[in-house]
Amino acid sequence: MTLPRPAAKPRCPHFSSGPCAKRPGYSLAALETQTLGRSHRSAIGKQALARACSETHRLLGLPADWRLGIVPASDTGAMEMALWSLLGPRGVDALGWETFGLTWVKDVTQQLKLPDVRVFQAPYGELPDLAQVDCDRDVVFAWNGTTSGVCVPDGDWIADDRQGLTICDATSAAFAMELPWHKLDVATFSWQKALGGEGAHGVIVLSPRAVARLQSYTPPWPMPKIFRMTTPDKQTGGNQLNEGIFRGETINTPSMLCVADWLDTLAWAEAMGGVPALAARSRQSLAHIEAFVAQRDWISFLARDAATRSCTSVCLKLALPDEQVKQLAKLLQDEGVAYDIGSYKDAPVGLRIWCGATVEPEDVRVLLQWLDWGRAQLGQA
């Protein structure tokens, strides 16, 4: 069967799940570049970095006593920093249901080799039983499974009176989902996800309970420089928090061009209406895909439960041979319709469409018309 070629293409075909699309209307000319070529320790450099911290904190709506800092090595560096700095005093419940969550499980079990770890796993498309999690232990999990399109539905399963820390990889959720910050003692994310910033830098958010752990606990293993958030406090015998990290005094040299890019996208996020408006854009894109899938029997969500569907990294299964799914993704890329929408290399073969706030919902709607056309080009009725 042949279908007429769709008349329109997405205005922006960037649907990659990371690095993600730049904000609508993005231009390098809009960046404030007076910091370029200057030291990040100069007054102008420190001012820009401090503003990146304070504006991110404000726009996320963090409680006043939560700290937010810029750290090396993207979300991976931020999560490694949290795991290596904070885990050890309590047993750990580690959750994994897709690639990155399973990476943190491996860190806890195979690298840190902690003696008291309970692992809760689920296959791609499902969540582990959250009711089994004991919040009096430390809990390590990803809010949104970027490679499976499965996210936790809410934070109700996290006890308010918990004794342990919750350590959350929030990289595909921050700025696209309204997170219950009082449930999260540590959260990490990267600039290149929900707001389409540039790579290489991570963000770590710490609750007062997490800070108290850092001050009272010294891990027994060597700590690389880029993970160190404290120094020994000879007066108290504990540790002194490096407060400078949370004022933009970064551990290593940051890219000031990336900082300028981040400040630009934060200004856009505020102009759009902040997190509530950004999350609404992501949900609108997901709604377009839900309506499309509901009318077709050859495509479905990898997330089996609608309540756990991600509104950012939307992962889809197709009733096609794996090779044809890959051909479809390449066809759409060659047509300039959708770039980088093949599933993650470790995930089941399918399509993954980024629907974060920097993607126009109308572009998602237009893209979906091309899925029908592309499938017909492959000889599928």
- Average pLDDT works out at 97
Q: State the secondary-structure class.
A: alpha/beta
- Count of strand segments: 14
- Percent helix, as a range, is 25-40%
- Strands of the widest sheet, in order across it, are 1-9-8-7-4-2-3
Characterization of this structure:
The chain contains 8 helices and 14 strands. The chain has helices at residues 43-60, 74-86, 99-111, 208-216, 256-272, 274-294, 322-334, 361-377, and strands at 67-72, 92-96, 117-121, 138-142, 144-145, 150-151, 166-169, 186-190, 201-206, 230-232, 239-241, 299-301, 313-318, 351-354. The chain is globular. The strands form 4 sheets. A 7-stranded mixed sheet has the order 1-9-8-7-4-2-3, with helices on both faces. The chain has a 3-stranded antiparallel sheet with strand order 12-13-14, with helices on one face. Strands 5-6 form a two-stranded antiparallel sheet. Helix 1 (43-60) packs parallel to helix 5 (256-272), helix 5 crosses helix 6 and helix 6 (274-294) runs parallel beside helix 8 (361-377). The chain starts with 42 loop residues before the first helix and ends with a helix. Helix 3 (99-111) links the parallel strand 2 (92-96) and strand 3 (117-121). The relative contact order is 0.19. The chain is of the alpha/beta class. The model has no long low-confidence stretch (mean pLDDT 97).
Q: Which key features would you list for this structure?
A:
globular, about 15% strand, about 30% helix, alpha/beta, 3-stranded antiparallel sheet, 14 strands, about 375 residues, 7-stranded mixed sheet
Write the SSE topology.
Elements: H1 43-60, E1 67-72, H2 74-86, E2 92-96, H3 99-111, E3 117-121, E4 138-142, E5 144-145, E6 150-151, E7 166-169, E8 186-190, E9 201-206, H4 208-216, E10 230-232, E11 239-241, H5 256-272, H6 274-294, E12 299-301, E13 313-318, H7 322-334, E14 351-354, H8 361-377
Parallel strand pairs: 2-3, 2-4, 4-7, 7-8
Antiparallel strand pairs: 1-9, 5-6, 8-9, 10-11, 12-13, 13-14
Helix pairs in contact: 1-5, 5-6, 6-8
